[in-house]
Amino acid sequence: MKTSRMAAAKRPRVDLNRAVIFLGPPGSGKGTQAKVLADRYGVPHLSTGDMLREHVSRNTPLGAEAKPIMERGELVPDSLVLKMVAQRIARLDCKRGFVFDGFPRTVAQARYLDDLLERRGFGRPSVIHLVIDPALLLRRLTGRRMCKVGGEIYNIYDRPTKVEGRCDNDGGELVQRPDDREEVVASRLEAYEKQTAPLVAYYRQRGVLHDVDAAKSVEEVGQQVRRSVQPARRGIRRGKVRS
Ligand code: AP5
Asked: pLDDT tens-digit profile of 190-227?
């Protein structure tokens, strides 16, 4: 997890103390917003897509199994994803909460997570549902470029870098994800509709879902996200907030 000095200075005097889940179709802005929110509260940004891509690049047994599935734009089996997530949130840096991006993605994953959160002493999660017209997604996905060094996300149409092909933060090379090709994007959107969209009703029934208009600018979406997340105040003792 990378937390900039400026983000730390702007960090609110409150702890997140929960899991925040970003739910939305590919390209709706989960990664963009999850990174900002996690930075703001100084907690880990947990992207199961990034974790799986890391396994693929290191050619681990998990990565070898996941690679062809991801290239087809399908979901990796729950059995592989759940163990990876359970191990990650058991780490010390997740004590004050964390932000999920791309997890859970099936009802089975959501049920497993409910159980895991309860066992680890966290309350109910806050779920940010990024609502967007599917027509906007193709442009966002095919235009996306990622920094190979720090993972910063850009878009050749809407968020270009100052120097073409180079990250504004660290000068790292920008690359396109293999699954952002137009033909794979269609399979990813189909997988979302079939396997992940039912989670909207799942979390709405539990009263933890916040709808956010994801068609707005990154800054406006960020404002809606911040309003939706109501964290516990840090250091409350006998009704007073410690400075
Ligand atoms: P994953 O990496 O999670 O990809 P995804 O869900 O398809 O989502 P994306 O990362 O493509 O989009 P995003 O919503 O994060 O948008 P972003 O912020 O980047 O998963 C990849 C694969 O891994 C899956 O297909 C599956 O195989 C596997 N996998 C992962 N998790 C799994 C799980 N739990 N179970 C099983 N399999 C799993 O933004 C996109 C672009 O839009 C960027 O260029 C950005 O700059 C731009 N943008 C963002 N917000 C705005 C805005 N408000 N206005 C204009 N442009 C914007």
From this structure: 999 999 999 999 999 999 999 999 999 999 999 999 99
Q: Is 76 in the pocket of ligand 1 (CB under 6 A)?
A: yes
222 lines ligand 1 (CB under 6 A): no
- This prediction has a pTM of 0.90
Q: Is 238 assigned a catalytic role? A: no
Closest-lying ligand 1 atom to the alpha carbon of residue 32:
18
CA distance 190 to 124: 29
Token pair belonging to 13:
């005097």
Q: Does the active-site annotation cover 144?
A: yes
